[in-house]
Description:
- By secondary structure, the chain is mainly alpha-helical.
- Helices cover 77% and strands 6% of the residues.
- It has a four-stranded mixed sheet with strand order 2-1-4-3.
- The relative contact order is 0.13.
Amino acid sequence: xxxxxxxxxxxxxxxxxxxxxxxxxxxxxxxxxxxxxxxxxxxxxxxxxxxxxxxxxxxxxxxxxxxxxxxxxxxxxxxxxxxxxxxxxxxxxxxxxxxxxxxxxxxxxxxxxxxxxxxxxxxxxxxxxxxxxxxxxxxxxxxxxxxxxxxxxxxxxxxxxxxxxxxxxxxxxxxxxxxxxxxxxxxxxxxxxxxxxxxxxxxxxxxxxxxxxxxxxxxxxxxxxxxxxxxxxxxx
Length: 236
């Protein structure tokens, strides 16, 4: 293999490692994002529960006020019964008293139902708060893990970048420019081995004449199919 091509192969190894590091850094926050989405969902559910508790507690106060007012009216009507002179007046007031009793019984039932629902909702709130607390704990731990991972990856990337700069100095500017162009256009693989006349990058056959020239290793050639820089890799 021509020396310059051998250097390109080494350079590609470095670039593939850098590419892998960038992908790892990009994918690192995905679990954190998932945890944050779950947290947001649980917080929203918690807010809905608290809103529902506030709503029914307000309704409970209103019903209790109605109950007290009607209870006062009930007492006054009871006292008034004995002073009525006609049967018609008595029956009308008795009907009103019965309606007050019926309405207040319904109010008592509603108050009890609200108290039961409040108790149930408060238990749900406790459970949601536990879940929110757990997600927040996991998020803190995940942020710490990501920070430590990124520090390690950044240190590794810095060392590789320094090595890349050193290696790049031994490649002619034109060839390096071509390599960088292909690297960016071909998924970080600009140099490919050819084994038994087949390009390892695109899996296409190399013309026999070109393959023979490739075996002589006198020039740097490109694959007719994918335009990558190629070299012959003879299988022993």
